[in-house]
Design goal:
By secondary structure, the protein is an alpha+beta fold. Among the domains are: 120 residues, DNA methylase specificity domains (Adenine-n6-DNA-methyltransferase TaqI, Chain A, domain 2, Alpha-Beta Complex), CATH 3.90.220; 152 residues, DNA methylase specificity domains (Adenine-n6-DNA-methyltransferase TaqI, Chain A, domain 2), CATH 3.90.220. The radius of gyration is 27 Å and the shape is elongated. 31% of the residues are buried.
Length: 409
């Protein structure tokens, strides 16, 4: 979208209203409230990125809309209840008879963040766009558009709640199964707590090896290719995200550095993170490899050394508190938390029978499949939302042409 307009040009319906932004939604800067001055209460304090705390007094009546002014510039939030608009946000002071929920969706569609300025701390100046022309539907159509978009938004939120519940279920199962096993047998006390009596406890270095990546030089990178470097930043929350600061190398690197080429089924672990935060030790299984991936330094590939362990079992053990509670204290470094593969060799790992390992892994595979299903639904719903938002705000489709029912969304 052009930064000098709010909406794409086009043929808008005759009954839509031609106006300017300020006569559609007049924005005003919120009022400062330091954390030292927060008083115990249930009133949300609306900052640039959403709720930043609670207070006992509101300065805006709900329903209301805020837009990030400083920091998370352009982020839109809608509040049903009264709230305190912080000075890092702009709030809608006057709706001019328009529907508040529709205004929130329209501001989201308008991407006001593109009007922000400033390098270190971006800031949004409402005077930059307040006089720009816009075309909006009448309030009766605004209300229907807000209902349709709200249905999709609530469906997304429901899937997000299901993902959060599934994550809690997985966490509880990781603790239970690595403490009690599957057969209800007596337990024994070990260096890492209670475990089933028949399970062996051995050192990690006796059953797996950690193969460290190569220190690829940034000057060898290219703009794009089919060969990408996997760095510690690409392993986040035990997921592989290749879109995070991607670095590509010439395709011939796949032969030159064949030892560091990853393949489907590999397990990799991040060895470095932010000091003071548990954002290291993330373990990821490469279920598929969409392109040639090179293993960078501070990321290690996990290889099995013993037939006593299965790869699926070790994956889930490395995600459990039984392992992480041992791992985190070994990290060293003031500015960055660095794991030592040498120190990690002495950490303890549980070894049940191969049959029980397979059964335990199958439980977690089922939970992971639920994650994937919910994520697919979220991705689909988000794409539907983006498409509907654009088409409804530009009158490419009219709300009365839609045949959406709650159960379809």
């Amino acid at each position: 979208m052009d930064s000098t307009i709010l909406q794409p040009t086009g043929n808008y319906p005759d009954d839509w209203i031609r106006t300017d932004f300020d006569h559609f939604a007049t924005l005003q800067r919120g009022k400062d409230l330091t954390r030292d001055h927060f008083r115990t209460g249930s009133v949300p304090v609306a900052g640039s990125n959403g709720i930043i705390g609670y207070h006992d007094t509101a300065n805006v009546k709900g329903p209301g809309v805020t837009v990030g002014r400083s920091g998370s510039v352009g982020k839109v939030a809608f509040y049903q209840q009264d709230f305190w608009a912080h000075n890092t946000a702009l709030f809608v002071k006057n709706f001019h008879g328009n529907v508040p929920a529709f205004i929130a969706f329209f501001l989201d569609f308008s991407r006001l963040g593109r009007f922000g300025s400033g390098a270190s701390v971006p800031t949004l100046d409402r005077n930059v766009f307040r006089t720009l022309p816009i075309v909006i539907p009448p309030p009766c159509e605004q209300r229907k558009i807000a209902v349709v978009l709200g249905l999709v938004q609530r469906a997304i939120e429901q899937q997000e709640r299901l993902i959060a519940l599934t994550a809690e279920l997985k966490k509880a199962f990781l603790h239970k199964l690595f403490t009690e096993g599957l057969r209800g047998e007596p337990q024994k006390q070990t260096e890492i707590g209670l475990v089933p009596e028949s399970w062996e406890v051995t050192e990690l270095g006796k059953v797996i090896s950690l193969f460290g990546g190569y220190a690829f030089k940034s000057e060898g990178s290219v703009a794009t290719s089919d060969t990408q470097l996997v760095r510690m930043g690409n392993l986040y929350q035990n997921k592989l995200d290749l879109t995070r600061s991607p670095i590509f190398y010439p395709n011939e690197f796949a032969q030159k550095y064949a030892r560091f080429v990853l393949k489907p089924g590999d397990l990799i672990m991040s060895l470095t993170g932010t000091s003071g935060k548990e954002d290291y030790g993330f373990t990821v299984e490469l279920k598929s490899v969409p392109k040639t991936l090179l293993l960078n330094q501070r990321v290690a590939r996990i290889d099995l050394l013993s037939a006593k362990l299965t790869m699926n079992f070790i994956l889930y053990f490395l995600l459990s508190r039984k392992f992480l509670d041992q791992l985190y204290p070994t990290a060293k470094g003031m500015k960055q938390a660095n794991l030592s593969t040498h120190a990690m060799k002495r950490l303890k790992v549980l070894v049940p029978t191969v049959g029980e390992q397979k059964k335990i892994a199958s439980y977690f595979r089922t939970i992971d499949q639920k994650f994937e299903l919910h994520q697919i639904k979220i991705d689909t719903l988000r794409e539907l939302f983006r498409s509907l938002l654009h088409q409804l705000m530009t009158a490419q489709i009219r709300v009365h042409d839609l045949e959406l029912r709650t159960e379809q969304i």
